[in-house]
């Protein structure tokens, strides 16, 4: 038994080491995809999926429990937060006297991002929902099987 | 008018705040609500009678759809709403005492008040859609009232019967209303009255009236839908008295009367009502005298009385309408009295068995007097209100408009019905109170004043109107008749017509009815005879149909919803292939143009080969892990094809999704039972054919799509305007977050719901102690 556990630890050394480095990198990459989405391939949905994959990789290297421990709040709460952010980004133009979900722009020709406005905020909401949904499903299944 | 009705509904929910047993004696004061409504409505009587004939209250609701909360008080509405609130006041008083010890009395009053508000809405609404809404509310509140004794299975069952039948009728009635709205362009009864010909001469006329009949006949318990009414007698007696004799069952009558000036004029209308009403009144009266349960007996006489009214409306002459309007009031007064008396008898002796009950007049004289007067009125003895209506019946059937044969038939049916009704009235109203008082009932003391006062008041009115008919005929009944007839009428209720045919018929009725009363002895044997008829009753037939439908639904569901994912997918693909394939070959000239397709490049060929190998492995491996990994390979290959053809967004998404799918599979993989080979050669062959034909179909559609000229205006618009309007260069993303941002938002909500679904299904199981295997 003891030997098995040691073996497992040994087996996963490479995976764990790489996961330690890949996790921040992948998350950075997902954020990069998120913000460049307006001009180039990317966006909130893909960004969210990539970020979830980063956590999935981590949970494979260690265990879902250990990945979960990295979150100070449950990933489940990302879902309502994301929905709220998306909704508020749509509400923003209403405050400014335009109709719901009209684009509002704060700055144009920003490096990488392109035009920066309410659309990015909306995408951020989508990103959070996707991460929340995927991780919730994943952790729930791994906890219960 | 809107305000009083809304307040009534609000007050209904205020009732729930009362503490049942502790505040039981305060429940009597709730009867102030119907009393105030009664007085309020009474204040419009002069206007309806002398002045404009109708008072209109305009309230917009959804003007764009022609739906309003308009109310109108005319003679007919006045007659019904005065009955609803007037008898309601007495019922409220009575029920407070009757249900004094009940622990749910506050709920009872809530339902009853809801019902009263809804009923007022039905008879006062001018808009058909609003009328329908109130109509359904009466069905629903009646459901709660019939099933009030929730711990009795019979009571729940009867409530469900009543709800399903009246609900079905209401549904068909809504269809009729929509057709009326479609044909005439208005839902307002007031406007329909100004253009009566428009519906009668329309091609949809017969559909409209048959659907309307369905609504009215189910509600007013006409044959063959009459059986729910005896069942509804499971309700507490005040409910039976109020809903199932005086008010709700008359809603169907109201509907027919309301539409008489609009829809009558065709023979089909008249004959249908006459035939259905005739059958109902005869069957109801005939069956009533075999019952020994007082409530059962009264239920069947009520069915019969409703049949009489429908019959009279079917005849459709001015006198017939006048007789109908008079009888509505006559019947409400005497039948409510008899029901309330039954309630008192049941309350004091704990039985309603007519073969046991005798001589109760000695212990409860006021109740006996009330019942006696009601029975006389139901028999049509002179100086009671019932006499006047019976004279009118015979006046109608012996009228001059009929041929000799019709006079015999109509008068014969009417005579027979009335003979039975007379003896049934005597059985319920006289028999229990005369004769020798049995030993066990000696100890009964006089019931509480709030129990006996309401029936006494009602029977006093029966007598009062019988002696001084001018008080009602000149005010309410005449106005109501005008509303039904469509023209102004001026008729009188006359006490003495002189010695003529009509009087003779009345005397024959009374004599024969009395003779029958002395011949019939309520006993189990008589009730047993009725049991034999049960096999042929409409109730049995409808029950059988319902059971059949449920059986079919069960088998149908078992067949399609069998729990095997592979069967679901098989059915979906087969259905899709069949229906799309048929359309493709039948309607589209199939042209496959291989020209202009780009060349097959070497790396595409490699991807193709990889995919084929992966598919081969999937179908032949015996290891789950291998097949899932191979599925992942197929997914990645498709990603590569997306990349080759310039869809990087799609490729990235597909890539991420594929990865996650494989991961999810791996997570549950270890929990699955060992790999089992379900399929044999035959099944594999079948699946092979299905999947190949599906693949061929999709390829054909794709090639066909290339040939057909595509409409590119939409994609061009997006491409042209993405930067100009939304300041984005990635069109796909601009569509997602801007053009169709609303869709995206709703899709994220769908995703969230899926996550919550997974979470709750898995968590629920573990909390329940049934850990998923």
From TrEMBL, chain A:
Main location class: membrane
InterPro entries (alphabetical): CPA3_antiporter_subunitB, MnhB
Locations listed in the record: Cell membrane
Keyword Glycoprotein tagged: no
Spans traversing the lipid bilayer: 21-39, 45-64, 76-96, 116-141
Gene Ontology CC, one term: plasma membrane
Any Pfam family hit: MnhB
Keywords, sorted A to Z: Cell membrane, Membrane, Transmembrane, Transmembrane helix
UniProt keyword Lyase, yes or no: no
Ranges for domain Na+/H+ antiporter MnhB subunit-related protein: 14-136
Membrane topology annotation: Multi-pass membrane protein
Family in the record: Belongs to the CPA3 antiporters (TC 2.A.63) subunit B family.
PANTHER family with a match to the protein in the record: NA(+)/H(+) ANTIPORTER SUBUNIT B (PTHR33932), NA(+)_H(+) ANTIPORTER SUBUNIT B (PTHR33932:SF4)
Protein name: Multicomponent Na+:H+ antiporter subunit B
Automatic annotation (TrEMBL), chain B:
Membrane topology term: Multi-pass membrane protein
GO cellular component: plasma membrane
Major place of residence: membrane
Domain MrpA C-terminal/MbhD: 610-673
Keywords: Antiport, Cell membrane, Ion transport, Membrane, Transmembrane, Transmembrane helix, Transport
GO molecular function, one term: antiporter activity
Subcellular location: Cell membrane; Membrane
Source organism, top-level taxon: Bacteria
GO terms (BP aspect): monoatomic ion transport
Domain NADH:quinone oxidoreductase/Mrp antiporter transmembrane: 125-397
Domain NADH-Ubiquinone oxidoreductase (complex I) chain 5 N-terminal, residue spans: 62-109
Residue stretches making up the MrpA C-terminal/MbhE domain: 685-763
Transmembrane segments: 6-21, 33-56, 76-96, 108-125, 131-148, 160-184, 204-229, 269-290, 297-315, 321-345, 366-388, 408-428, 449-472, 492-520, 565-585, 600-618, 625-647, 653-676, 688-707, 744-762
InterPro entries: CPA3_Na-H_Antiporter_A, MrpA_C/MbhD, MrpA_C/MbhE, ND/Mrp_TM, Proton_antipo_N
Coiled coil: none
This protein's name: Multicomponent Na+:H+ antiporter subunit A
């Amino acid at each position: 038994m003891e030997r098995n556990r040691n073996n497992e630890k040994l087996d996963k050394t490479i995976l764990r080491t790489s996961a330690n480095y890949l996790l921040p990198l992948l998350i950075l990459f997902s954020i990069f995809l998120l913000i460049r989405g307006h001009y180039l391939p990317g966006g909130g949905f893909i960004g969210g999926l990539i970020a979830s994959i980063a956590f999935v990789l981590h949970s494979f290297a260690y265990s879902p429990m250990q990945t979960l421990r990295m979150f100070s709040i449950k990933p489940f709460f990302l879902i309502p937060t994301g929905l709220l952010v998306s909704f508020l980004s749509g509400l923003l133009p209403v405050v400014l006297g335009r109709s719901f979900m009209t684009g509002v722009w704060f700055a144009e020709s920003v490096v990488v991002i392109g035009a920066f406005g309410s659309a990015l905020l909306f995408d951020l909401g989508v990103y959070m929902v996707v991460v929340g949904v995927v991780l919730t499903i994943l952790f729930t299944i791994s906890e219960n099987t | 008018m809107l305000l009083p009705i809304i307040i009534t509904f609000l007050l209904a929910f205020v009732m729930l705040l009362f503490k049942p047993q502790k505040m039981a004696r305060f429940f009597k004061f709730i009867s102030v609500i119907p009393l105030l409504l009664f007085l309020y409505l009474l204040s419009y009587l002069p206007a309806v009678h002398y002045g404009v004939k109708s008072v209109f209250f305009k309230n917009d609701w959804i003007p764009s759809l022609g739906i309003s909360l308009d109310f109108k008080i005319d003679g007919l509405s006045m007659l019904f709403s005065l009955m609803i609130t007037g008898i309601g006041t007495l019922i409220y008083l009575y029920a407070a005492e009757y249900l004094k010890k009940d622990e749910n009395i506050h709920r009872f009053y809530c339902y009853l008040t809801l019902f009263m508000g809804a009923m007022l809405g039905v008879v006062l609404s001018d808009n058909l859609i609003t009328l329908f809404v109130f109509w359904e509310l009466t069905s629903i509140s009646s459901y709660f009232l019939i099933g009030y004794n929730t711990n009795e299975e019979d009571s729940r069952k009867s409530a469900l019967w009543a709800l399903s039948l009246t609900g079905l009728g209401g549904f068909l009635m809504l269809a009729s209303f929509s057709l009326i709205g479609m044909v005439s362009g208005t839902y307002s009864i007031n406007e329909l009255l100004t253009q009566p010909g428009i519906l009668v001469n329309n091609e949809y006329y017969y559909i409209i009236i048959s659907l309307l009949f369905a609504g009215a006949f189910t509600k007013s318990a006409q044959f063959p839908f009459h059986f729910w009414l005896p069942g509804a007698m499971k309700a507490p007696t005040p409910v039976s008295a109020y809903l199932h004799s005086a008010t709700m069952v008359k809603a169907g009558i109201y509907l027919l009367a309301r539409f008489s000036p609009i829809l009558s004029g065709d023979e089909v209308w008249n004959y249908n009502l006459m035939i259905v009403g005739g059958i109902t009144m005869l069957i109801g009266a005939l069956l009533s005298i075999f019952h020994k349960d007082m409530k059962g007996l009264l239920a069947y006489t009520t069915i019969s009385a409703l049949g009489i009214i429908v019959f009279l409306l079917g005849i459709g002459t001015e006198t017939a309408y006048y007789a109908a309007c008079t009888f509505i009031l006559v019947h409400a007064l005497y039948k409510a009295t008899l029901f309330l008396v039954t309630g008192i008898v049941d309350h004091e002796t704990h039985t309603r068995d007519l073969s046991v009950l005798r001589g109760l007049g000695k212990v409860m004289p006021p109740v006996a007097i009330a019942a006696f007067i009601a029975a006389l009125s139901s028999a049509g003895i002179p100086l009671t209100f019932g006499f006047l209506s019976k004279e009118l019946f015979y006046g109608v059937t012996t009228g001059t408009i009929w041929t000799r044969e019709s006079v015999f038939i109509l008068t014969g049916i009417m005579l027979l019905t009335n003979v039975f009704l007379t003896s049934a009235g005597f059985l319920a109203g006289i028999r229990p109170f005369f004769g020798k008082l049995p030993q066990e009932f000696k100890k009964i003391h006089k019931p509480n004043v709030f129990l006996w006062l309401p029936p006494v008041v009602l029977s006093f009115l029966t007598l009062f109107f019988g002696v001084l008919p001018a008080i009602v005929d000149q005010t309410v009944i005449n106005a109501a008749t005008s509303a039904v007839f469509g023209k102004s009428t001026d008729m009188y209720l006359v006490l003495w017509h002189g010695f003529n045919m009509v009087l003779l018929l009345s005397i024959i009725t009374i004599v024969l009815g009395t003779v029958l009363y002395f011949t019939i002895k309520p006993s189990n044997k008589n009730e047993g005879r009725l049991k034999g008829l049960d096999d042929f009753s409409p109730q049995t037939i409808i029950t059988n149909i319902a059971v059949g439908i449920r059986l079919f639904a069960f088998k149908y569901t078992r067949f399609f919803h069998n729990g095997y994912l592979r069967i679901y997918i098989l059915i979906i693909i087969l259905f899709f292939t069949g229906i799309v394939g048929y359309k493709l070959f039948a309607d589209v000239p199939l042209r496959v143009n291989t020209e202009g397709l780009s060349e097959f490049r070497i790396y595409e060929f490699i991807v193709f080969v990889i995919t084929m190998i992966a598919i081969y492995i999937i179908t032949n491996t015996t290891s789950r892990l291998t097949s899932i990994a191979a599925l992942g390979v197929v997914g990645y290959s498709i990603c590569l094809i997306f990349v080759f053809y310039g869809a990087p967004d799609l490729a990235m998404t597909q890539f991420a999704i594929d990865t996650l799918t494989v991961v999810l599979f791996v997570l549950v993989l270890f929990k699955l039972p060992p790999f089992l080979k379900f399929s044999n050669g035959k099944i594999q062959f079948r699946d092979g054919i299905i999947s190949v034909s599906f693949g061929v179909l999709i390829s054909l559609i794709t090639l066909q799509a290339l040939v057909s000229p595509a409409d590119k205006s939409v994609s061009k618009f997006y491409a042209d305007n993405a930067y100009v309007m939304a300041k984005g260069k990635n069109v796909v993303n601009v569509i997602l977050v801007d053009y169709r941002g609303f869709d995206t938002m709703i899709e994220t909500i769908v995703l969230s719901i899926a996550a919550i679904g997974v979470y709750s299904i898995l968590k629920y199981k573990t909390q329940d102690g049934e850990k998923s295997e």
